[in-house]
Every structure is written in structure tokens, then in C-alpha cells.
Specification:
This protein is mainly alpha-helical. It has 17 helices and five strands. Helix 2 runs antiparallel to helix 8, helix 4 packs across helix 9 and helix 11 crosses helix 17. It is globular.
Amino acid sequence: MGQLHLGLLVSLSLAAPAVAQPISAEDFIAFDADQARLGQLLFYDKILSGNKNISCGTCHHHDLGGTDGLSLGIGEGGVGLGPKRTPGDGADRIRKRIPRNAPALWNLGHTDVRVLFHDGRLEISDIYGNGFDSPAEEWLPQGLKTILAAQALFPMTAQFEMAGNTGENEVIGAVTDRIDLGWPILAKRVRTIPEYGEMFVQAFDHIDRPEDVTIVEIGNALAAFIGTEWANYDSPYDAFLTDGTPLPEDAERGRQLFFGEARCSQCHNGPLLTDQDFHAMALPPFGPGRTRQWDPIPRDVGRMGATDDLEDAYRFRTPALRNVALTAPYGHNGAYANLRDMVRHMADPVSMRADWTPTRAALPEVPWLQQIDFVIQSDRLEMERHAATLDVRPVSLTEPQVDDLVAFLESLTGVSAMERPLGRPDRVPSGLPVD
């Protein structure tokens, strides 16, 4: 644990910079338009949460570039949207922050996507006979057409994200018994709403009556929406790749740094600017941690939580970078609310970690959680293990070079990024309020 991950370090240090690849509509899964329109309503409908008080869109909102603008989200029990979201009060107040930063949704319908979540706990695989290696193992239902469809089901089962606290509703009660037992309850809620029932019959050829709708169709509809709604590749950088349109001078200098001496492209490569692999970047730990059942402290061991392999400790999935300027804060725990700070950290993790203070994050104050928010930083041994696991060598960058790298990253923002095809609906069939 105190050693650098040497094999990865060698590959990052010696491999030649990857050549960027353009993407186009042909690179994306072809989703059904009627299913996408249905998925849009489900995405913003709180009917899919245990207490009917939070939707997918609450933490992945159009107005916030598909995220929530917070380092660690305020989930089930909170009130409001984005940085203005409050933690609730009384019996409904939140009991825990969401342990990780809300991941961006951009281009997840690309056919190259094969692993999801910060720790990669969902992968395309035949290990359980249902197409995926996931936390639901053999209990994940058959018929989910894409990894996006499988991913859409898991926030519904998470206590602090959408399911609610034990004893509050029948969904969390069922999930507590077994992860898949809450999904039929949610599916029944949806299909018994006449408007939804009719839409499912119309959108899915194999659904002849509302009673046939299961969580599989709900997941597939959500995937159709996410996969089409957040597809975006019309940035200045995409224009550079496809027709040679020059970037602004500072962004061009940043591009050369990115694919050259700054070594960013060793991990941020391929069509989505991610190797979809896992690396330790020594981001300062805080928050409740994504603890496993036997963890004695509020820590997050990253990929190791999915694999139980000690070699994977503190390693997290490389994020894709298109529209990255729209998706702050950054890092698996949102340690940096500022893109410039994140670039600095990636160049020199040790120094930035040493200088880090909570003011660099976007962490709304929750008085009753203050004792837990930074308690991990008082655990000397855990902090030493965490800091010692680092997969990159520092790169010396001047402030003008940092400026240029930020300019390049900003050139990855799509011209139409904030003009999505469907957007946020004004209403949903359940009649519940839309955030």
C-alpha cells in the first residue's frame, strides 16, 4: 500500500501519447425516440423514489449540465436544487451525504462505454448470465439492453439517494431484504398511472397492456433518454478534429501540453478522452465514505470496493472530458470546485493535497454532519495509506501553462451543450412536482 503501483506508473510514464479520435452520430447506440420521450418523464418523476421526493433529475439536472453542482450531493430528504439545495429538517432531514460526486452523463450512449460508476462496479460481462457484472449479481433482471439501462436501476435501490431510510416506505424495506425486491414495487407504481401505461404500450412492441411493464422497460426507457439527450460532440475541439478548424491560441497550446509533456492523454485518451481504467490520484478524502459492511472508518477504497483486490485500493475510474467545464466539482468526491485547481492537482497531487482546505470544495453546511465530514483526516494510518497510493509522477507546470490547459478543456464544451433535444419537462404523469 505504501508503494507506487509500479506497472501502471511505468505505462503512464513511457507510453506514447494517444492520438485523439473524433466521434459522430454513428458511434452511438440507436435508441428509440418514443422510449426516449418516455424516459425523459421518468427521469424527472419522483415516483421512482421510495418517498416520492427525489428524481434522477434532481442530481443530474439540465440547468446544471447534467450534475448537481455539489461535491457530495444532498439526496433523499433534501429540498431544492443544486447549490441551493438544503438538507431538510425534522424527521425528513438527510442522515448522510451522498458519498461520491454525481457523475456526468455526457456521451454515455457511445458504443465504447463498457464500465460505469466511479469504482466500476457495473461492467458489461456474462458472469451472471444477464449481461452485466453488477451489485445485483444474478438478481439483475434479464432484458436490459445496454449498460446505461442497468445503471439507471441502482440509484433507486440506494438508501441515501432515492430509496429512503429504513422504515419509511415499502421500497427500502424490500431492498433491505434483497437488492432486486424494490424494483417490482416501483414498476407497479409507474404502470398503474394510466398515462404511463399507455405510453409504454406505444413505445415497446412487446408490451400489449400496462400490466406487462416491469423495471426492465423502465430502465430501457431511461437509457434511451440519457443516451440520446446527453450526446454532444460539437465543441471547438470536435471541429478541430473533424475539419481542422484551428483552436484559439491558448487552447491550442493547451492541446499540445495535454497530448505532450503534461501527459494528460496517458489516461484521458480514446474517443471519449478516458481509458475507462482506474487510477489513484490521492485526492484529499472527506465525507461519509463509501463504506463496505466491514469498514471500521468512513473511508472510500474506490475500485477495491468492487473487486476486493488490495491492488485496486484508492483507485477510481478516469472520467470522460467532453463538456468537463460544465460539470464542476471535480474528482470522485468533488474535492475541487474549480477546474483550474483540478488541473493543478493532476499535475502535482502531493503538493495540492498538502495545501487542500475544505473551501476548495462545494460542500453545503449540514450542522449535524459536521463531525463526520472530515473525521477521516484525523486517522493518521488511513491518510498515510491513501497518500502513498499514487499512480502518476508530478509534472512541473507554470501558471500560464495551467491557463492553457484550462483553455483546452474549455474548448471541449459543445456549442449546443446547454440546448438539449428534450430538456426538462414541465410536468410528469404522476403529478408530483418537477425540480
